[in-house]
Specification:
Blueprint lengths: L9 H12 L6 H25 L4 E5 L5 E3 H14 L5 E6 L6 E2 L9 E9 L10 E9 L5 H6 L17 H4 L8 E7 L3 E6 L4 E6 L6 E5 L11 E3 L10 H11 L10 E2 L5 H11 L2 E4 L12 H14 L3 E3 L19 E4 L1 H12 L7
Parallel strand pairs: 3-5, 11-12, 11-13
Antiparallel strand pairs: 1-2, 3-4, 5-6, 6-7, 7-8, 8-9, 9-10, 13-15, 14-15
Helix pairs in contact: 2-3, 6-9
Bound molecules: 2,5-anhydro-1,6-di-O-phosphono-D-glucitol and manganese (II) ion (2 copies).
């Protein structure tokens, strides 16, 4: 067993390599340690829920009309409690909150925005399937004249004194602007994976010490990638014909002597993405009749996962356009998501970018 003393903890890695090389503002790392503390709390509650096999439902519905569970709300509260006091933070966007939460930040450059899916995949908890927390950190961008022109009825403010309320144009930033992004996966082990633009690094929580220990430095999607495609085929009858054609391509018998594709789908985005990061493949949550923009949210599901994918040598699109280039119209905007090995995401874009013909 490798001596644990040689393996850097998350804190040591952040104070050392991260601080030395990252292009992110130096004190963002306190936010990541706050998120790791929240992850430790959430992992403990997730384990208990798995044991009881029941999902404490609040009885009400979240802002997306989905049955909210107390554990989604617990996860939201745990993160807010662990990071809200950090002067680096000026705003929190959460799947569990209708509007963004402005936080007076005394940080000289105005601080940053945390976009959060506090608990992803929680509907799977009752059957003990891995779930996760997804986070994205964006800089507080100054609304410039062009930005404000598009929504002057919202009274975009030009005063950018720290602590002033944020204008929509400061919040609705494309994923390319992210300072950092990542997830915490609550599975057989609790792992934390993040990028701040200098590669993707994975940490595993040591249940004895409680420390997150570096176990995957500079993660890269394998090339050649595993021949996996990952999507919920229950929606096949509602797909665009080109999506049909793409999945039919995956199902065709492989050339003689070559390996064919196999299907993998967990139904928990963080778990599906983690597998794709480790072995490759193509994760797809397409748009379909009834869900014209797909199901996944751009700011706190697709964009953070897209930054991870690109930093690991992969790619993420909405089928044809890079996710990181998409500017959100609102904080809960949905988007189709195709993410994974670059060659497979490119193949999907070829199929989906073609003119649809009636014959398909
Ligand atoms: P959340 O629990 O945050 O609402 O996210 C659930 C999402 C995501 O985890 C997963 O990829 C997707 O729901 C699965 O949707 P389907 O059940 O429609 O396949
Ligand atoms: Mn989610
Ligand atoms: Mn969620």
């Amino acid at each position: 067993m490798r001596s644990r003393t040689l393996v850097p903890t998350l804190g040591a890695f952040l104070e050392g390599e991260e601080a030395a090389h990252s292009s992110a503002p130096p004190d963002w790392i306190h936010l990541l340690t706050g998120l790791a503390r929240a992850g430790t709390r959430i992992a403990r509650v997730v384990a208990r829920t798995g044991l009881t096999g029941t999902l404490p439902r609040t009885g009400d519905r979240n802002i997306h009309g989905e049955a909210a569970t107390r554990i989604d709300q617990y996860a939201h509260n745990a993160v807010v409690e662990e990071v809200a006091a950090d002067e680096m933070l000026c705003c929190i966007i959460s799947e569990e909150a209708e509007d963004h939460m402005s936080i007076p930040s005394s940080h000289p450059d105005g601080g940053c925005i945390l976009a959060l899916d506090p608990l992803d995949g929680s509907s799977n908890l009752g059957v003990n399937v891995p779930v996760g927390t997804i986070f994205s950190l964006l800089p507080r961008a100054r609304p410039d004249a062009t930005d404000c022109g598009s929504d002057d009825e919202t009274g975009c403010r030009s005063d950018d004194a720290p602590g002033s309320a944020l204008a929509p144009s400061e919040i609705l930033r494309p994923g390319r602007d992210q300072i950092a992004a990542g997830y915490i996966l609550y599975g057989a082990a609790t792992v934390l994976v993040y990028t701040s633009g200098r590669g993707v690094h994975g940490f595993i929580r040591d249940p004895e010490s409680g420390e997150f220990l570096l176990n995957r430095r500079d993660m890269r999607i394998p090339s050649p990638s595993a021949l996996h495609y990952s999507t919920n085929e229950a929606y096949t009858r509602r797909w665009d014909p080109r999506q049909h054609d793409l999945v039919r391509h995956f199902k065709r018998p492989p050339p003689k002597g070559a390996k064919g594709f196999s299907a993998r789908y967990i139904g928990s985005l963080v778990a599906d993405i983690h597998r794709t990061l480790l072995v490759g493949g193509l994760f797809m949550y397409p748009a379909f009749r009834g869900k014209p923009e797909g199901k996944l949210r751009l700011m706190y599901e697709a964009a953070p996962m897209a930054l991870i994918m690109e930093q690991a040598g992969g790619r993420a699109t909405n089928g044809t356009e890079d996710i990181l280039d998409l500017r959100p119209r609102d904080i809960h905007q949905r988007t189709p998501l195709f993410a994974g090995a670059r060659e497979l995401v490119d193949l999907a874009a070829c199929h989906l970018g073609r003119e649809a013909t009636d014959s398909e």
